[in-house]
Amino acid sequence: MAQQQQEQQQQEQEQEQQQDGGPSYMLLSVLQAQGVAAADIKKLTEGGIHTVETLAHCSKKELLLIKGLSEAKIEKLQKEAHKLVPMGFISATAVNEQRGEIIQIATGCKELDTILDGGIETGSITEMYGEFRVGKTQLCHTLCVTCQLPIDMGGAEGKALYIDTEGTFRPARLAQIAERYGLNPADVLDNPCTAQNTRAGGELSGRQLALGRFLKALQRLADEFGVAVVVTNQVVCANLDGGSMFAGPSVKPIGGNIMAHASTTRLWLKKGRGETRTCKIVASPSLPEREATFSIAAEGVCDAKE
Predict the structure, then answer these.
(1) Where would I find the beta strands (DSSP E) of the chain?
(2) How many CB atoms lie within 10 A of CB 195?
(3) What is the spatial distance between Cα 146 and Cα 154, in angstroms, rounded to a whole number?
(4) What DSSP element (H or E) covers 246?
(5) pLDDT in tens, 129-183
(6) C-beta atoms surrounding 232 within 10 Å
(7) Phi then psi dihedrals of residue 30, to 5 deg
(8) pLDDT digits (tens, 9 = 90+) for 46-60
(9) CA distances (Å), 41 to each of 48, 57, 63, 238, 246, in order?
(10) For residues 305 and 297, is the Cβ–Cβ distance under 8 A?
(11) DSSP character for 129?
């Protein structure tokens, strides 16, 4: 009885959040009001499905991989989800209103924020690629702090998850950057979560398949919860085929078409004059191709210092 009351209170809170302009997604628990059993919701959650929107848009093939769900059960669950999630075409006005919920997270450099129309966009994947020592890691550390700032200060009032594939995550850097914004270093360090993943073995085709799946999962997180996904990437020589070294960029990001198509915005970071760095927008559905110059200091990414 107590558990039922708790679940009902949770549903009422989620409905209030929707009405008060809270999260734009619906957690699976709202389906209990549609007659969906709590046990089925638990199976979906354990299978990586957390929102009604994801359930509605998932293919039956994906859902059948979840243990304990039959095809008939999946059809019933999706039928209920489709009652709450519009599946047809929507107007450009509606899309524009949805994009009005997107916020930008400050990078620490005013010029870089300007060309990015405010900073790193939430709800999409931003890829940063370049050679070593161009500022990719430092920019990620800075974002781990700025994402905690209030929205009116260029933050997102959120948390950070840092997946460290090269062993370069340094909590001490976050503490240094926190002081720049007048934040308590201890509080800032309590916010981000980190995990190491350095596995990259196997055949190329297998790695590309795994990369595609991982990027799809990241895009789902961005779509579902409106998070900003930032991916760093390495580069290789762009003229390995023997072409002219003066034709086009000297380097290109690794990952091929899988990486290129998964990224909403692609940023090319390069070494500039002296201790400065340059960031160029290479691809974006809404931003023109342009460059900004920034520097790296003890307080993280900052305005260019000649």
Answers:
(1) 104-105, 120-121, 125-129, 161-164, 193-196, 229-233, 235-237, 251-253, 265-271, 276-283, 291-297, 300-303
(2) 10
(3) 7
(4) none
(5) 999 999 999 999 999 999 999 999 999 999 999 999 999 999 999 999 999 999 9
(6) 19
(7) -65, -20
(8) 998 999 999 999 999
(9) 11, 16, 12, 48, 57
(10) yes
(11) E
